[in-house]
Amino acid sequence: MSTATDQLDPHLDRSFFGHPRGLSTLFFTEMWERFSFYGMRAILFLYMTKAVADGGLGWTEEYAGPVYGLYAASVYFLPLIGGWLADRFIGAKRATFIGGVVIMLGHFALAVPKIQFFYLGLVLVAVGTGFLKSNISAMVGDLYGKADVRRDAGFSVFYMGINLGAFFSPLVCGYLAQSDSFSNFIVGLGFDPHNSWHFGFAAAGVGMFFGLLQYLIGRKNIATVGLPPSENPRLKNEPAGTNFSTAYLTQLGILVAAAVAIVILSAFYWDASTAITKVLTPVVVVSGLVAVILTGMQDKLSVSDWKRLGVIIVLFTFSTLFWMGFEQASTSLNAFADKLTITTLFGYEFPSSWLQSVNPIMIIVFAPIIGYLWLKLGERQPSDAIKFAIALIFGGLGYVVIAYASSRLGADPENVAGSKVTFWWLVLLYFCHTIGELCLSPVGLSSMTKLAPAKMVSLMLGVWFLSISLGNYIAGRIAGAFVADSAVLTSTFTKVALIMMGSGILLALVSPFVNRLYSKPQVMTPMEP
Ligand code: GLU
Ligand code: ASP
Q1: Which of 126, 274, 306, 456 has most Cβ atoms within 10 angstroms of its Cβ?
Q2: How far is Cα of residue 58 from the mean position of the Cα atoms in its chain?
Q3: What's the pLDDT tens digit per position in 430-450?
């Protein structure tokens, strides 16, 4: 067997924990990139909504939520375009470097306390992430031969890098932005204490700088991956793949048109609470789905392919609902932590944004355990659809916890902040969300690739990112309704819980149908048993 040969092959590079040396370069670059992303994200919503007197922008949640949602949706929407540019022209390696530079400039722009630089910074971080995110992961895949059994394990190691960065950065950026001790320190240096937020953003930029530095130092380790198509020897003998098909171009055209439409419309009606919120959701969803259907028509798919596409759209919907809940971590849940929880541990009052580190550290702890569980269960492990359902149910349980905590806040809306609850409620919520993430996130990408018709694999990966994008967007809208009021929060969080758990149960009920489409992808006969 070729896999066995690969495993025994003495020529394989195993110098980084049994993996190719190049993985270490990509691991640390992505660790620092995620450090910058999650560090900035931990304080972004708080900065937008803090009073001007406290150094923030003084926006209402109603305004900040949709702006944040638009930013976060773009971050997961643009990698589709960045991935295409790399496949078609510049190669993943160069795209990743360009992305890193643009991201770094973005964070440094945010470090300038001027509103124009704030918007510029958000745009740069989103565009830079578009260049970097999908391409750096593509290079991880590229490190392994087709039959190399280490590939999945390589991605797990890479995922650890992501979460290591995501764990450390809220601690650093949150401390700089929110702590009294650092504010006092910069006063001593002659700075305005209100600028502490901007030191937090600058720290994110410094993190990305380290990522770039180590990407350059380690570039010889990734000499053979991420090449542009013109220099890639592997493409010489292969027929044009999915990435170069007209189908992919059509999809891209529609997506670019949608992106341009969003930008133009937003520029015309710069009013976050109305126009953008109304425009973005339908444009992104409709363009994504139209692209899928058009591509399918062009590729003359078989009946069974169409059925499997149907399943992908079903999974897309459920995935969106999961991220809608999960991605409120940095907005509503962050605001909840800031305004309504007592963040004291062993007598030390820590910055509320430190709670953003709870999910990544739990991922690092629980990912190996869940991985081991699936391995142990082998054939008896639940199907992908059931794993999605479990993820949604755990996601919903997290909201049951926080709805209950909200109901314990004082009933007096004037003084709700005077009756805070303990931060442990949020830890419990993040525990539920982490288990959910581990049942859904690693499964999602692989089930998209398993279900996608051969010619449409790249497109389906894009669809996966679109579901995260849309989920982030809806999360931002829900955060727009955040008010520090016990009754309102209890009702909002209960609704989110019900939607997530209800859709999880629904998915579990229809899962036998979904599983049948999985196991017999080639069968063209009707689906009756
Ligand atoms: N939180 C992870 C990241 O930032 C995963 C998001 C995803 O599922 O792609 O890379
Ligand atoms: N767990 C997220 C990502 O994996 C990181 C985060 O949300 O902080 O990997």
Answers
A1: 456
A2: 27
A3: 999 999 999 998 888 777 777
Structure tokens belonging to residue 446: 């692989």
Counting ligand 2 atoms within 8 A of each CB, the residue from 36, 162, 334 with the most, and so the one to mutate, is 162
Return the top range by mean pLDDT from 29-43, 260-274, 367-381. Answer: 29-43
Round to whole Å and give the CA distance between 353 and 64.
Answer: 17
Alpha helices by DSSP H, 327-423: 332-340, 358-377, 384-407
User: Residue 463 half-sphere exposure, CB side, CA atoms within 13 Å?
Assistant: 34
Q: How far apart are the first and last CA of the chain?
A: 35
In single-letter form, the type of residue at position 376 comes to K
Contact 192, 183 (CB under 8 A): no
- From 160, 328, 437, the mutation candidate for ligand 2 (largest count of ligand atoms within 8 A of CB) is 437
Sequence-ordered list of residues with C-beta below 8 angstroms from that of 291, at least 6 positions apart, any chain: 250, 251, 254, 255, 459
The structure tokens listed for 370 are: 């869940």
Tell me how far apart the alpha carbons of residues 245 and 252 are, in angstroms, rounded to a whole number: 11
The finding on whether 388 has its CB within 6 A of some atom of ligand 2 is no
pLDDT tens across 106-135, in order? 999 999 999 999 999 999 999 999 999 988
Q: Give the phi and the psi of residue 241 in degrees, each rounded to 5.
A: -85, -175
Which is more confident, 22 or 273?
Answer: 22
Residue nearest to atom 3 of ligand 1 (CA): 162
pTM of the full predicted structure? 0.87
DSSP 14-73: -TBTTB-HHHHHHHHHHHHHHHHHHHHHHHHHHHHHS-GGGTS----HHHHHHHHHHHHH
**In the 8-state DSSP scheme, what is residue 223?**
T
Q: Identify the H or E element spanning 341.
A: strand 341-342
